[in-house]
Amino acid sequence: MRDKRIWLIGCLIALLALIVAWESWENKGAYGLGGTIDLEEWQPFFETLLLLQESFYSETPLEGRALMEEAIRGVLRATGDPYARYLNEEDYKVETSDRVEGEFSGLGIVIAIKDDKLTVISPFQGSPAEKAGIKAGDVIVEIDGVPALGMSSDEAVRRMRGERGTSVTLTIQREGEEENIVVEVVRDIIKIQSVEYEMLSGSIGLIRISEFHGRTQEELKKALSSLQVAGVEGLILDLRNNPGGLLQSAVLASGMFVPRGNPLLIVEDREGKRESITNFVDPVWKGPIVLVINKGTASGAEILAGVLRVHLGAELVGETTFGKGVVQEIFPLSHGGGVIFTVSKYLLPDGTDLNGKGLEPDILVSEEEEQIKKAEEELRRLIDEKALVS
Fold first, then answer.
1. What is the pLDDT of residue 99?
2. Are 241 and 318 spatial neighbours (Cβ–Cβ below 8 Å)?
3. For residue 181, what pLDDT is reported?
4. Crossing angle between the packed helical segments 2-28 and 39-55, to the nearest 10 degrees
5. For residue 98, what pLDDT is reported?
6. Which residues, 6+ apart, have CB-to-CB distance to 187 below 8 Å?
7. Residue 164's beta-bridge partner residues?
8. Is 122 helix (H, G, I), strand (E, B) or coil?
9. What's the pLDDT at 34?
10. Does 195-389 match 103-191 at the fold level?
11. pLDDT value at position 166?
12. Virtual torsion, Cα 56, 146, 143, 246, nearest 10 deg
């Protein structure tokens, strides 16, 4: 009884501290909350916590930490934001490190909740997931036999990440397949080389951007410089299965192809206020360009493809993209963890809203092995036309 009373007193003290903090936020407008939190609405929540501690029967004691984490997940789930996630301390360190360094241990896939289903946005090129046959658009039904329906995205990520050499069994649904597919994937260190490039025949350069992170701008500039020194006349930009990444990195990459002073992006906040982001650098590439896209092309990759289509009339070859036109931000929490949720949406420079719609290709090519070939054909045509004009 003494321990229970101590716990109850602690809860009441915490509740009082929270009330004082919220009143302070209301006066100061901290975190943008202003006076939007109604303490009377939240009172039943704290009453429930106290009642559970006072009267709940279970053979195992309640853990306050577990209740707190599930409460946060519940709040995030109630927003309806498919990209909202809770991060414990370990998840927070990994997530913030990934976005800068581009290296982690796991399967190498990006997921989101789409239509209430745990869906693969894209596998990283060369990752264990891609080698095992996981494709963009696959729906994960089970993870190691645990049903994924209703599973939060942070729990799914945590179940799939782990030590190198260990394995995960995924049961997936795939469009066009009648039966579920069971795949065993062995975890490995995922070193994301953001930019890779090569020379194709006929003075054509190929650059693949697999994700936008802290080093992408530097890697892309190096690739463009190397290809131009080698004498390329046209460029294929491969954005297939690029899930996005850092918004700033994607915007900076777009600026390498668009004349200085042109608008790159329109960002709209929750109140409908819009801000235009303008290119402030000189372009590095000014020659003919064709982009290759698929259903795993998302977020920042859609920005780059859309910007080049709007300003340069660049052709898109492949499939309709994922359609992620919203921006998430990571917020730290006092215990060392954090939360991710959507803070704004973006529009292309011409006002196009691609969220939930994606970018449709100019030339539809569904077969993966044919997409680069078709891009080469179109690029050679553009190079020939440029030569005739010259």
1. 55
2. no
3. 96
4. 170
5. 56
6. 105, 106, 107, 128, 161, 162, 163, 164, 165, 166, 167, 168
7. none
8. strand
9. 44
10. no
11. 94
12. -30
Q: The tokens of 304 are what? A: 């780059």
Out of 249, 299, 345, 374, the active site residue is 299
Hey, where are the domains in the chain? 2-62, 103-191, 195-389
Query: What does DSSP say about strands 188-191 and 103-106: parallel, antiparallel, or unpaired?
Result: antiparallel
Separation of alpha carbons 183 and 132, rounded Å: 7
Instruction: Give catalytic status of residue 55 as yes or no.
Output: no
**pLDDT computed for residue 191 by the predictor:** 76
161, burial (CB in 10 Å: exposed 0-12, middle 13-18, buried 19+): middle
Tokens read off for 151: 């599973």
Cα(222)–Cα(200) distance, rounded to whole angstroms? 17
Q: Is CATH 3.90.226.10 what the domain over 195-389 is classified as, yes or no?
A: yes
- Facing residues of 119 across strands? 112, 139
Q: What fold does the segment set 103-191 form as a domain?
A: Pdz3 Domain (2.30.42)
328 noted as active-site residue:
yes
The predicted model scores a pTM of 0.80
Task: Please identify which residue in the block is written with the tokens 């929540």.
Answer: 45
Active-site hit among 114, 135, 324, 374: 324
Helices (H) and strands (E) in the chain, counts: 10, 19
Whether 299 is catalytic is yes
Q: Which contiguous run of DSSP H or E holds residue 38?
A: none
Q: Where are the beta strands (DSSP E) in the chain?
A: 85-87, 103-106, 109-114, 117-123, 139-143, 146-147, 167-173, 181-186, 188-191, 195-200, 204-209, 234-238, 263-268, 274-278, 289-293, 315-318, 326-332, 338-347, 363-364
Number of residues that this document lists for the chain: 390
State which residues of the chain have pLDDT below 50: 1-2, 5-10, 13-14, 16-17, 19-34
d(Cα 137, Cα 86) in Å, to the nearest integer? 23
- pLDDT attached to residue 90: 85
The whole-angstrom separation of Cα 257 and Cα 189 is 32
Point out the catalytic residue in the list 114, 328, 371, 374. Answer: 328
Assess contact for 291 and 239: CB atoms under 8 A. yes
Dig out the tokens for 303 from the structure: 């920005």
